[in-house]
Amino acid sequence: xxxxxxxxxxxxxxxxxxLAKTLQWEKGVTLLSFLKKHNIPQKLYYDLDSxxxxxxxEIRAGQEYFIEKNKTILIPITDELQIKxxxxxxxxxxxxSLEPIPFEVLKGSIRLIVKxxxxxxxxxxxxxxxxxKSLKIAYNHRIKFNKMKKGDSVTIFYEQKRxxxxxxxxxxxxxxxxxxxxxxxxxxxxxxxxxxxSRGKKYEKSHKFVTPFVxxxxxxxxxSSGFTYRRFHPILRRYRAHLGIDYASKRxxxxxxxxxxxxxxxxxxxxxGNCIIIQHPxxxxxxxxxxxxFRKGFRVGSHVSQGRIIxxxxxxxxxxxxxxxxxxxxxxxxxxxxxYIRIRKRKKxxxxxxxxxxxxxxxxxxxxPKFKRIKKTGGAPLFVKKGDxxxxxxxx
Length: 396
Fold this sequence. Notes:
Glucose Permease (Domain IIA), globular, alpha+beta, 3 domains
């Protein structure tokens, strides 16, 4: 069996730190009050720009943060990005920065011939429930994997992030092949994190895609900033994150509840200014920030129906202009709202052209011999054991 490649991600500037303390963020504590408690100049917060100040509101009660032996403080905001507060011993000054969290990347592969049930057989081989979820995304939910029969097969080349032996996020599929009813369906991941078949065509859904969520703002509006867990700003030369979607609109534009639910927060919330958070029945929370004012009649504990006006666009908190910052969370973790908002009409088929198509064909040529070899080897799947602890086949 082919050895699994284990590479250390070079996104971090330092190796994983040796931590002296692991603590939990207390309820009601803001970054400002945290700095004051630890005798750290609050100027570190006030010197941040509005976008970074807004991001500080994402620190959640109960989440872990770390204090190293050299007193450096690390506060994770996402699975990939953390706040670092360090003191320069020579100058005696503190510095606050946003830095990537170091992790390892394990690469795995698997070829599975279905005997009876793909989901159960794939889980038996990998103990990863996320692999099938990622496979569905690779085909834009176009293939009905629960309809696969005996003799059908899946081939997957993927990678999995790991930190301290723990799997981080679902696996990322690099290339895959599904053989169903003797028909072949390839999927390849491009540089912009989208999937296409070997000829550059994107898998389209055969029906209208409907979710329980609707766009929270209508009228003349545009998306001024999209969702990203971590990105390196080429001009500022530092890491940024934006855990929601910003809808730029004129002051006073009505804001509507994306789905029915119960209001669990109504009031000021750090850089988010006037903010409402709604708990929905499906375990997802939605956040509406920078409101100019709230609609009367609603308070914490109030139930709202889908599409009900809950407030109005403004620029309260850390904001450079009137807009709605709209966030969604699943089990406390920020998720991309664009993946959940209802698509009202089917999009036209997408096909790569020019340079993008040529780059895809290079990737197809790279994986062609790998698809041939894996028929003999069966691949080298990663294996999740003892909870979320991730092992390579060599370590088992």
